[in-house]
Amino acid sequence: GRFLVAPSYTIAPHVLLIYFLDSSTFYLVNLLLMYSVGFYGCILIKKHYSLGLVPFTFLFILFNFNGYFVEKYVAYGDAQMGYFLMPFIIIYVFRASEAVIKNLRTQIRFGLLIGIALSGMLWLGSLHIFLSCVTFVLIWGLVNYKLWKVLLISFATAIITSSIRIFPALVTVDTGSRSELWTGYTSNIIFAFIKLPTLISPWFFHSWEYSFYLGAMGACALIYFGYAGSFMKGKRVQFSGWYSLGIPSLYMLVLSIGNFKKYLLPDFMPLINKEYIPSRYIFIPVLVFTVIASINMNEFIKKYNNSNKVKFTLSVLCFLIADRKS
Fold it and tell me: What is the overall mean pLDDT for the chain?
């Protein structure tokens, strides 16, 4: 009698299609539907930052075909569909960070949008993705304390619109912390990005919890355009919101390493303390840096006056990244 209480199963409206489709067909339709939603979210990022074809291709490949999502989808199935709402969380947080502090209407708008996106993750049954995103939004709100209205409205909206999932779970499930906390990334964090797990990998039997395969080229491009390039002299980059977004992202990255979660995240907070695998936090900073890298790559191309040679070189890079993932 507690099946509908379990927040790991979807109750999104399109679940009614199961009455007309067999389970295998619905599995595919659900994936294609949410993939389309995620693609639309990427389009919103493209339009807001006027990304060219090459930077958008880079964003598209790393968002859809990274090892984190692919392996977890194979392991957990439809419980990962909330991942496709991540572009909306990212673009709304980015735009809220750019918003004028005194513009109350803008803060209310982005607070509502972030809250609805968070709620959608719960409706889709993506509990752990929801927990990671709530943690990120909380840290982002604390760092950008002047935008406290956005944080308050987003959490209030998420609670109200997903109360049908939250309150039954709180009533029937223990709200205490998980004592069996796993260890996050250690020295294997580098291999998680550049190597696919094999039968001799030290974490093969739970590789989906640690793999974030991007390939060597994808990882290098992400580091250069997403991080290192932001601190280079000259007009090679466009992104300048390192305080508002870089610090929360780096904080999430640290949470995913070793046992730092024990010391950096309060253990008394309901729901948030239910995440017992720290490595799951890493997808948020990687996706944030992917968007930053796409923005900076776009400016990098503009700096060289849209040189065909630069475009060709970066296009080949995107092709090689995609080829390594096939």
Answer: 83
How far is 61 from 288, CA to CA, in rounded Å? 14
Helix (H), strand (E) at residue 191: helix 189-194
Strand partners, 185: 257
- 8 Å CB contact between 125 and 81: yes
* Confidence category of residue 179, pLDDT binned at 50, 70, 90: low
- Would you say 253 and 289 are in contact if contact means Cβ atoms under 8 Å apart? no
The Cα–Cα gap between 295 and 223 comes to 13
65 is written with which tokens?
Answer: 């075909």
- Give 259's contacts (C-beta < 8 A, 6+ positions apart): 181, 183, 184, 278
Report pLDDT digits (tens) over 86-125.
Answer: 999 999 999 988 866 667 888 899 999 999 999 999 999 8
Query: Is 64 exposed, middle or buried (CB count within 10 Å of its CB: 0-12, 13-18, 19+)?
Result: middle
- For residue 150, the SS3 value is helix
CA distance linking residue 224 with residue 179, whole number of Å:
38
Could you read off the pLDDT of 289-301 as tens digits, one per residue?
A: 999 999 888 888 8
Q: Compute the distance between CA of residue 208 and CA of residue 223 in angstroms, rounded to an integer.
A: 22
What spatial distance separates the first Cα and last Cα of the chain, rounded to whole Å? 43
